[in-house]
Specification:
Layout lengths: L10 E3 L2 E3 L3 E3 L14 H12 L4 E8 L11 E2 L6 H13 L3 E7 L19 H5 L8 E2 L13 E2 L2 H20 L4 E6 L4 H6 L14 H19 L4 E7 L10 H13 L4 E5 L21 H9 L5 E4 L5 H9 L5 E4 L1 H5 L3 H8 L10 H19 L10
Parallel strand pairs: 3-4, 3-13, 4-5, 4-6, 6-9, 7-8, 9-10, 10-11, 11-12, 12-13
Antiparallel strand pairs: 1-2
Bound molecules: flavin mononucleotide.
Length: about 400
Amino acid sequence: MSDVDVLHTPLSVGPVELSHRVAVSPMCMYASVDGHATDFHLVHLGRFALGGAALTMVEATAVEPQGRISHHDLGLWSDDHIPGLQRIAGFLAAHGSVPGIQLSHAGRRASVREPWRAGAPLDETDAAAGLPPWPVEGPSALPAGPGWPIPAAMDIGDIRRSIERWRDAAARAVAAGFRVIELHGAHGYLLHEFLSPIANQRTDAYGGTTEGRMRYPLEVVAAVREAIGPETALAYRLSAVDGAVGGLDLDDTAAFAARLQDAGVDLIDVSSGGISTDRSLDTRIRRGFAFHADFSHRIRESVDIPVATVGLVVEPEQAQELVTRADADLVLLGRSVLDDPNWPHHARVALGDDEFAEWDVRYGHALAPRARLIGKLAATGESPMSRFE
Ligand SMILES: Cc1cc2nc3c(=O)[nH]c(=O)nc-3n(C[C@H](O)[C@H](O)[C@H](O)COP(=O)(O)O)c2cc1C
C-alpha cells in the first residue's frame, strides 16, 4: 500500500484542472422528455457534486434524435435543450465538481427499451404504448445481433450530416457550461461501430482497412475539437477490446488511442465490449474488481495524455492503488456513487484526510461536531445500542 494519498492530488486534463482523481462515470437514467433534462437529472447529478466528485459526467446525450438509445435519453440536437443542461452544469460548477457531458450516437443499437425492460429493441408492443421504434443506421447493413433491426448503411451524405450534428451538439454543450466533452466511442455505438470490423464492412474510404475504419471517429474528433475551442477538454471513451470473435483487440485500440491523442483528445476513458449482442461471438470479458485496469494500464503506456479506468471500483484503497500503480490517472465510478453519492468524501476520510474540510459547509458545519460527539461517547464506552442493553 502507498503512504501517499495520490488519489487526492490534482490532475490536468488538457486545459481543465481536476482537484483530485475520483470522478463520476456517465450513466443513462432514462428520465428525459424529448431529450430535455428534468428535475431528476438536477437532483441526481447535483448530489454527486455535493458528494465530492472532482468531475461529474452527464450521461450519454444524443447528438441527433435517431442516435438516442431509448425514447428517454438526453439530447442536444437543438438549442432548446441547452437551458436544462445549463442549470445542471451551473450547479455542478458552483459546488466544486467540473461539469462534463458525454455526447453519443447509438447507431445500430438505437431504438431500444430501458435496461430494466431487458434493453431489447422496441417493437409494435411499444408502438401501441406510444413509444414506436425508429429506423436505425450504422456503417454497414449488419444488425447488432439476432433479432435486432438491420441498420441503413450510411452513405457519404449521411456521414457528413452526422459529423455536423456532433459538432453542433458539442458547441451547445460548451454553451451550456460544460468543461469536459466526452465522445462515446465504446459499447457498440456509432463511433465504435465504424472502428470495429464486426460492424464495419464498408469498401469505401470509411472502411476496409484499419485506417479506413478509423476515419469516421477521427473526423468526428477533429470537428468536435475545433468546435469546443482550446478552453474545453475533450475526452474519448473507447472499448479497449470488442470481446467478440473477429473484433478489435488491445493492440488495435492502443494504436487508436495514440491517434486520438494526435487528433487533440485530452483524456482516454477505457471501457470494453458492446459491439455485438450475438452470444455465439462472445469471448467473455471477465468482470472482476477493477475489471478494466489491465486495459487502461496498457493504453496508458501508448499515450502521453491522462487515462481513466472504470468498472467495479468499490473501495478507496483500491482506487488509490489504481493510480499509484499507473493503471490509470483518473478513477471513474458508476454504481458505487449510485450506492453512495458521498463516496468521494468518504474516500478522503478512509485515506486519512481532514474529515469535513472538503464538504459543502452546509453539511460540514453540522457533521463535524456530530463526529466529535460520537467519538467522545465511544471513548466513554457508550455505543448507539447501549440504552437497549
Ligand atoms: C445505470 C447505468 C447507466 C449507464 N449509462 C452509461 C452511459 O450513458 N454511457 C456510458 O459510457 N456508460 C454507461 N454506463 C456504464 C458506466 O459508465 C460504467 O462504465 C459501468 O457501470 C462500470 O462501472 P461501475 O462498476 O463503477 O458501475 C452505465 C452504467 C449504469 C450502471
